[in-house]
Design a protein that fits this description.
19% strand; nine-stranded mixed β-sheet; Rossmann fold; 328 residues
C-alpha cells in the first residue's frame, strides 16, 4: 500500500510559488486555484506526469484533460488555430473559455484520450498565471478531486479528498465562478458546438453555436472533459425538483437546497440555500461548496432546486443533472 503523502496548504507567496514551480519541474502534481474550480496541475508535455494525474484522480484514460497555456503564441506551438478560434481567444482569454482544436504531435496522446484534438485555454486566475509564467511547459489541470466526485472550489476540499496523494495545494480562497469552463468544439470552425456549458454563455460568445452532435457513449473516448453521463456526484443521492417549486415529501436524512432563502414561515429543519436573493452567479459560486458541506455532514439525500435555464444557470443545471444520475 502506498504511504500517504503529507499535503501542505500554501499561501500564494512568491517563495511558495517558486517552490510549487520546482515541484512541477520535478514531475509532481499539485492542487492549484483557478477562476473556475481548483485544478490538479502537472506538466502537460510529460507522459509520466500526465499518467500521475490520472492515477491521483482515479480518472479513466477515455476522459481527456484541458491544457493551460500562458499565451496564445505559446498555445499556437502545440495546436492549429483557425481564424474563428483565434478571434475567440483574443476576445475571451485569459478567461473561462476552453477551445477544442486540432493538436500537434507535441501534445501526448494520453492527454487527449488518443484523439487528434485537444482542449486548451489560457486561465484568468492571477496565481495560476503566475505559476505558468515560472515554468517552460503548459499545465494539464483537471479538477482536483477524485474522479466523478463534486468539484473543489476551496483548497480545503482538495486536501480533504486528495491530501494523501499530493504534496501541496496553493490556497487563494474560494473560486470566482464555482463551475468549470465553457467548452467549445472548434475542430470544424464553420460548425462551433458547445460541449460543456460554463460561465461564458452562448449569447456572450456572439457566434452561432450548434448543438453538440457527438454520439460517443460513456465507454468511448470523450471529446472533452465533463461529458460523461454521471459526474460531479457526492456520496449522497441527489434528487432535483423544478425551479420555483416545492421539494415535495422530505424523508429523514435529507436536506433541501433552494436557489434563494425561503420566507421565514417556509423555513424547515435541514433547509439550505445557494443565494440570499436567487442571484445566478452566486448560485453557481456556492453550488459545489454547499453540496460538499452537506455530503460531509452525513445526509443521505439532497433535494436540490433546479435554477433558471439562462446564462450561467445553464451550466448549473448541467452539473446538477449529471450529479443526480446514479450508477447502474
Amino acid at each position: 500500500m502506498t504511504k500517504p503523502i503529507h499535503c501542505d496548504i500554501l499561501k500564494p507567496t512568491e517563495f511558495n510559488l517558486r517552490c510549487c514551480a520546482d515541484y512541477l519541474r520535478r514531475g509532481e502534481v499539485l492542487g492549484v486555484p483557478t477562476e473556475t474550480v481548483y485544478g490538479l496541475a502537472g506538466n502537460a508535455l510529460c507522459d509520466t506526469t500526465v499518467r500521475k494525474i490520472f492515477a491521483v484522480k482515479g480518472r479513466p484514460f477515455i476522459d481527456p484533460l484541458i491544457v493551460h497555456f500562458s499565451s496564445i503564441d505559446e498555445a499556437a506551438v502545440h495546436v492549429d488555430f483557425s481564424d474563428c478560434a483565434r478571434a475567440l481567444a483574443k476576445q475571451f482569454w485569459p478567461g473561462a473559455l476552453t477551445l477544442v482544436l486540432p493538436k500537434k504531435s507535441s501534445i501526448p496522446d494520453i492527454v487527449t484520450a488518443g484523439l487528434p484534438s485537444v482542449a486548451i485555454r489560457i486561465p484568468g486566475h492571477r496565481i495560476f498565471r503566475s505559476l505558468l509564467d515560472q515554468v517552460d511547459f503548459p499545465l494539464a489541470a483537471p479538477s482536483a478531486n477524485p474522479f466523478g466526485y463534486v468539484s473543489p472550489t476551496r483548497a480545503m476540499h482538495v486536501k480533504a479528498t486528495l491530501g494523501e496523494r499530493i504534496p501541496a495545494v496553493l490556497d487563494d480562497g474560494p473560486c470566482k465562478y464555482g463551475v468549470e469552463s465553457t467548452i467549445i468544439d472548434l475542430r470544424n470552425p464553420n460548425m462551433p458546438a458547445i460541449l460543456r456549458p460554463g460561465p461564458i454563455s452562448a449569447s456572450a460568445l456572439g457566434i452561432k453555436i450548434n448543438v453538440d452532435s457527438d454520439n460517443a457513449t460513456d465507454k468511448d473516448s470523450q471529446l472533452a472533459p465533463g461529458m460523461l453521463t454521471q459526474h460531479y456526484s457526492p456520496k449522497a443521492k441527489i434528487t432535483l425538483f423544478p425551479h420555483s417549486s416545492g421539494a415535495g415529501v422530505v424523508m429523514p436524512g435529507s436536506a433541501i437546497v433552494y436557489n434563494k432563502k425561503p420566507p421565514k414561515k417556509a423555513l424547515q429543519a435541514h433547509t439550505y440555500w445557494l443565494s440570499e436573493n436567487g442571484d445566478l452567479e452566486e448560485i453557481a459560486h456556492n453550488l459545489f461548496m454547499v453540496i460538499q458541506k452537506l455530503d460531509q455532514a452525513g445526509y443521505t439525500q439532497l433535494l436540490i432546486e433546479r435554477t433558471q435555464e439562462t446564462d450561467i444557470g445553464i451550466a448549473v443545471n448541467d452539473r446538477l443533472g449529471r450529479s443526480a444520475t446514479q450508477s447502474e
